[in-house]
């Protein structure tokens, strides 16, 4: 059978040299199914193994990069070395179909769930309250991430603007190629 869109089934080479077999990608999807300690569950590993055959690229559901930025309940975490065994198991399952996989890392910013935050404080690019949404209550107003000097990781950040002239992005999401 001749496919209508042959281009989809041709390999694609990225600028960094990575080549994928075809242009079909598994979209990132949060499944709310991590273990209580934020490691990946057997259920979610099975979910990946079932879906990764025959596609060119796998993108995982988002993984939280810091406890102040949790945007979804029961999502597997990536903010500490103790999660490496969990992430390694995810990488093996995500790559079990032969395609490379990327880990989507995520910080919910002003839309973080304050009840999930150990310090009870959320941080964002701007100290502006997000409206309540399907996952967040809209309370409290986040601390400006550059003004929050208590965080070691932010201590050497540049001086924040006194009056941010406009609101900047409330949630960050990046992709990291899974090599482990
Ligand atoms: C249940 C569910 C979970 C999702 N989780 C994520 C996620 O973790 N990260 C992300 O960037 N997009 C996420 N998305 C968005 C999807 O990757 C996709 O972009 C979106 O569903 C649009 O595609 P569609 O029109 O085929 O549904 C999610 C979507 C759904 C329905």
Task: Note the main sheet.
Answer: 4 strands, mixed
Euclidean distance between termini CA atoms: 38 Å
CATH architecture: Alpha-Beta Barrel
Given helix and strand content, the structural type is alpha/beta
Number of domains: 1
**Rg, nearest Å:** 19 Å
Overall geometric form = elongated
Let me know the number of strands.
8
**Model regions low in confidence, pLDDT < 50 over at least 5 residues:** 149-166
Percent strand equals: 15-25%
Query: What ligands are attached or bound here?
Result: flavin mononucleotide
Give a verbal description of the structure.
The chain has 180 residues and is of the alpha/beta class. It has one domain: Alpha-Beta Barrel (TIM Barrel). Helix content is 12%, strand content 17%. It contains 2 helices and 8 strands, in the order βββαβαββββ. It has helices spanning 42-51, 84-94, and strands at 12-13, 19-20, 25-26, 57-64, 101-107, 123-124, 143-144, 172-177. A 4-stranded mixed β-sheet has the order 3-4-5-8, with no helix packed on it. A two-stranded antiparallel ribbon has the order 1-2. It has a two-stranded parallel sheet with strand order 6-7. Helix 1 (42-51) runs parallel beside helix 2. The longest helix has 11 residues, at 84-94. The protein is elongated. The protein binds flavin mononucleotide. Flavin mononucleotide binds at residues 27-30, 61-62, 104, 173.
């Amino acid at each position: 059978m001749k496919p209508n869109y042959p281009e989809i089934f041709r390999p694609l080479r990225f600028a960094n040299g990575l080549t994928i077999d075809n242009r079909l990608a598994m979209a990132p999807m949060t499944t709310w199914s991590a273990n209580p300690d934020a490691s990946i569950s057997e259920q979610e590993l099975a979910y990946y193994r079932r879906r990764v055959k025959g596609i060119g690229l796998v993108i995982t559901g988002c993984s939280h990069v810091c406890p102040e930025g949790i945007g979804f309940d029961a999502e597997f975490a990536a903010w500490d070395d103790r999660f490496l065994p969990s992430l390694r198991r995810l990488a093996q399952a995500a790559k079990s179909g032969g395609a490379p996989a990327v880990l989507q890392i995520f910080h919910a910013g002003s839309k973080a769930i304050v009840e999930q935050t150990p310090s009870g404080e959320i941080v964002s690019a701007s100290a502006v309250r997000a409206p309540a949404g399907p996952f967040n209550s809209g309370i409290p107003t986040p601390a400006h991430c550059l003004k929050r000097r208590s965080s070691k990781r932010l201590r050497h950040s540049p001086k924040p603007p006194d009056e941010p002239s406009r609101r900047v992005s409330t949630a960050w999401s990046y992709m990291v190629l899974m090599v482990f």
